[in-house]
Amino acid sequence: MRTTKYQTKMIIKTEGIVLKSFDFRETSRIATFFTKDHGKVKGILKGIRKDHKKFGSHIDRFTVNEIIYYHSSRSELHLVSHCDLKQFFFPIRQDYKRSLAANYALELVDAIMPVEQANLEIYQLILDYLTSLETIRDIDKLVHVFQIKILLLSGFSPHLDSCVKCNKKILGQARFILSSGGLVCPNCPSTETSFSLISKGTVASILHIERNNWANSVSLGLTLTVKKELKYTLNNFLTYHLERKIKTAKYL
Ligand SMILES: [Zn+2]
Fold first, then answer.
1. What are the φ and ψ backbone dihedral angles of 219, each rounded to 5 degrees?
2. Which of 126, 153, 215, 228 shows a CA-CA span of 20 to 30 A to 48?
3. Which tens digits make up the pLDDT trace of 163-213?
4. If you measure from the C-alpha of residue 146 to the centroid of ligand 1, how many angstroms do you get, rounded to a whole number?
5. Does 110 share its domain with 45?
6. CA of 192 relative to ligand 1 center, distance in Å
7. Ligand 1 centroid vs 174 CA: distance in angstroms?
8. Distance (Å) from CA 198 to ligand 1 centroid
9. Does residue 142 share a domain with residue 58?
């Protein structure tokens, strides 16, 4: 990263993954990037729709780009002066379900992360996820590994090591209570009527994924029952914490 102080504006050079973009006025586009050095950054690309040679990228979703922008201290919207395509992930775009899974992750990152909060681990997580999505067949598993890791890296992880009420280790099946943020053992009373039962295998899978790197996490075998429980529990947990549904989740 090269940062040059110029009055109140700084010129920042970094890499960014396009989370979303939309047309603005006659000739411009506004894009949200997740950048390597500064987290989520919003930028305007002036004239990109008029002069196609001005930028070396069409800022398609989930492309990786090298960008240079003028950091504004007054606004969250910064002026992007250069944007060059680095990675396109063509195999994902050729496959409908893989594209959906990619878009789901972008929407999730956008919902979870505040603007301009640097998080290199999340940047790397998105790259690992997109790279695996190009080739790995089990798309559901990739989505679950991504969900568990982003919850962990953004500080939202559910409490699964022990009972949230008595702190004792849980043996066997437990209740997963959203409002308590994790597992409650059979011995602890709870007036909460909304809970899901979660098996030991599912808890062990989540803990394995939290404690291992990307490669070791995606090589973990998941049974159909574990997958079913993960899908139900993780989607509900995310909806509860974000206080809204991720739109693309229903298509997965
Ligand atoms: Zn307990």
1. -90, -5
2. 126
3. 999 999 988 788 999 989 999 998 898 888 778 889 999 999 999 999 999
4. 29
5. no
6. 14
7. 9
8. 15
9. no
